[in-house]
Design a protein that fits this description.
There is one protein chain. With about 290 residues, this protein is an alpha/beta fold. Helices cover about 25% and strands about 30% of the residues. It has a single domain, classed as Nitrilase/N-carbamoyl-D-aminoacid amidohydrolase (4-Layer Sandwich), CATH 3.60.110.
């Protein structure tokens, strides 16, 4: 594949998924269409764009394979609008464990072909009291490998999902493997989002000198779950260059790879690392998850 053009438009999306898969896909269709009309070459959708279930049993009943209707429809959208899609995370059937699922980030090209995939590796198990609690390990199987960055028309994209943003080791590995864009499709709780969402995205951008794209769930999904929102795009200097409003929304920004290289050249932090003091956590080249 040819190298990416220096400046390309990307779109980050925000939505409120529920347990109505048809309604969610209608929203996805509108977001992709809107992003394409705005000139985006690649569109980034949030974690759980397919559905957010009310409980584990309902979620398992709704889970699909990669050949199911959800990814098939997304492939049609990619072809119809001539865009690449970052499908932030869909619930994928775990063939080795019928009582659990995988949460899988998939990248599609303009032909609807799967170019890369990644299974969420850090699972969010927290208990704040009241309704603000979640235990992903009860229904998700954690991923077992890091997917190397995928070459796209907008740059080399490193894949992660939501809670992964709190673990800088993963982003360092992706940066070492050539990532120019890090993406964290998410469904942050209101409490953690208000405190940490912007800070974490900007930190990952600054320390890795990468663009960071955070598609987001927002609003009330059901009686037990609500998401913070504020999908955004951060540049390699740590500046927020696009941010969504409340509700269903899409916003765009330029990814400028010449600017990214200038940031890295002006402040070559990668060359200043003291591996002799703290070792090299970036020695993590692995085969992508199939």
């Amino acid at each position: 594949m040819a190298d990416a053009v220096d400046v390309q438009v990307v779109a980050v999306c925000q939505m409120t998924s529920t347990d109505d898969k048809a309604a969610n896909m209608k929203t996805v269709s509108w977001l992709v269409e809107r992003a394409a009309k705005l000139g985006a070459k690649m569109v980034f959708l949030p974690e759980a764009f397919d559905y957010i279930a009310k409980d584990k049993q309902q979620g398992l009943a709704m889970v699909e394979t990669r050949t199911g209707p959800t990814l098939s429809r997304c492939a049609e959208l990619a072809k119809q609008h001539g865009v690449w899609l970052s499908l932030g995370a869909f619930h994928e059937k775990d063939s080795s464990n019928a009582s659990k699922m995988l949460l899988t980030h998939v990248v599609l090209n303009t032909e609807g072909d799967i170019m890369a995939s990644y299974n969420k590796s850090h699972l969010f198990d927290v208990e704040f009291g009241g309704n603000e609690s979640l235990k992903e390990s009860s229904h998700l199987t954690p991923g077992s490998s890091i997917t190397p960055p995928v070459q796209t028309p907008v740059g080399k994209v490193g894949l992660a999902i939501c809670y992964d943003v709190r673990f800088p080791e993963l982003s360092l590995c992706l940066r070492q493997q050539g990532a120019e864009i890090l993406t964290y499709p998410s469904a942050f709780m209101s409490r953690t989002g208000m405190a940490h969402w912007e800070v974490l995205l900007r930190a990952r951008a600054i320390e890795n000198q990468c663009y960071v794209i955070g598609a987001a769930q927002t609003g009330k999904h059901n009686d037990k779950r609500q998401s913070y929102g504020r999908a955004m795009i951060v540049d390699p200097w740590g500046s927020i260059i696009a941010s969504c409003h409340e509700g269903v929304d899409v916003c765009i920004a330029n990814v400028d790879l010449k600017y990214l290289q200038k940031v890295r050249q002006d402040m070559p932090v990668w060359n200043h690392r003291r591996y002799d003091l703290y070792g090299d956590v970036t020695k993590c080249m692995t085969e992508p998850t199939q």
